[in-house]
Amino acid sequence: MIGIYTEIEQGKRWLDRHRGQQPIFACVLGFTATGLIPGISAAGATPRDRQFTCLADAEFLYNGPQPSPQYPLPPLEAGASPVLISRAVVEALEIPLYLFNAGLPLSPPVPAIDLGGTPAKCLISGNALELETVKYLLEEGLIWGAKLAAQTNGSYLILGECVVGGTTTALAVLMGLEIAAAGKVNSSHPRCNHAQKLAAVTAGLNNAKWKIGGENSTPLDLVAAVGDPMQIAVAGMAIAASRTCGVLLAGGTQMLAVYALIEALAREYALLWCPEQVTVGTTRWVVEDPTGDTVGLAKDIGGVPLLAAQLSFAGSRYGQLQAYDRGYVKEGVGAGACAIASGLSANWTPAQLLQAVEALASRCEIKHETNLLKARGVSDT
Questions:
Q1: Which CATH class is domain 2-371?
Q2: Domain extent listing, the chain
Q3: What angle do CA 269, 113, 360 make, to 5 degrees?
Q4: In this predicted model, what pLDDT tens digit does every residue of 306-337 receive, in sequence order?
Q5: Which of 258-267, 318-327, 367-376 has the highest mean pLDDT?
């Protein structure tokens, strides 16, 4: 189920340390208006759909299929939300779940801990977040990272994200940290829209007058200029949690950017963290994406073990799930890390995981048909 792509010995030690343990899953929700740029993301068929993707994913992750969700999962160009993978694992393994609102335009429809952040403006502005907000989110992240670690009882903490447009803000943070990330990041499109991302990031860094070593060039300034609220909150959580428990950063490009941000924050502010406790976990669809270079990016950052769940949905009876193996969606809402947890904690095989996801998809199908019948005035009893 689990492949190790970089820092192999460190990755093996991390896996051996946490085999058979049940994790805690914290998913941090955020918003950036970058996600509303036409064509920037496939996590919602239109910019309007993408305004509600995070809310819908949070609701589904917390509740599973419901007859009348407040925010139905939005239509995609192809495929299905990766929250199906995360929910299937959380539900079957009874993994404790915490949702955090790092900065959303609307309150989530399910219980979530409010970190006191704000939505980010489009990164092209070069002024995505107020610096005071970024500082506050780091402080809150440090506090909650310690609190969550105390609940693990020596196990590990999965830190996931849901930010539409987040691979573009990730590229911005990586480039701002002088990591050669252009052309290496991933996206929810089957072919990554590198030129569009790079143009947006270049404009944002130029508008922010970003200069490494300049007067206002701390990691916090960088996030304020071109980042999103999830990044700094998760960085703080991971720093604090790593001191006492294992941390699995759940995602591909976005969590590699968070890892690089952690390194920069630790250097700049002398923050204690334990790198040997931290890994990044994603899906095979991300690390083997021929239109990106996640493995090369992880090597450029250095020191980070990159894990990936060896998933294949090519044989699924659902066309929406088959789309993953054609390059659509790939990752999100902690899907890859939850899949890794299913192998690590419960010894699931990829086939068992697909079976669980298909069982959940069939329940969604039944709920959808029931809603259609009710809308037509037909009783389902």
A1: alpha beta
A2: 2-371
A3: 115
A4: 999 999 999 999 999 999 999 989 999 999 99
A5: 258-267
